[in-house]
Amino acid sequence: MELKEIQELIKMFDKSKLGELSIENGDFKLSLKTKEQEIVQMMATAPMMAAPVAPVMASAPAPVAAAPAATPAPAATAGTSIKSPMVGTFYRSAGPDKPPFIKPGDKVTKGQVICIIEAMKLFNEIEAEMDGTIVKVLVDDASPVEYDQPLFIIE
Questions:
Q1: CATH node for 80-154
Q2: Which are the contacts of 109, defined by CB distance < 8 A and separation ≥ 6?
Q3: 15, 47, 81, 94: which has the highest count of C-beta atoms within 10 A?
Q4: What is the mean pLDDT of each run of 10 residues along the chain (155 residues)?
């Protein structure tokens, strides 16, 4: 399954009222679950495949008054937010003993690597979408992030 297909599934799952979704195709397995804090659990037991995937099981959502909203960027901070292009684990540096790619106050240029998001054992370099100055880092190092979650504020 291609990364784009997985991202589209996550978007559709997010918009649905399902509480859990599991998909299996040969050695590939994907499991999505929602909980009080919108935790998404992904599990792959084999390399990604390009074959089409059919849902195996989808359970009804747990009765909830309203789905929790994504954490908005703080209103007091002016600027544009740089959002996560995928679900994964956010890292500010290339390794535990390495300095962070950027910190508040740093000037960045479009295309400059600003962080890494690990998704399914793949480390994806995330680049700045525009030139500017980093005002604030909104996510702690080694924290899970959701698709479209604000990571940085840039001016």
A1: 2.40.50.100
A2: 128, 131
A3: 81
A4: 76 73 75 53 43 48 47 59 93 91 94 93 91 94 93 93
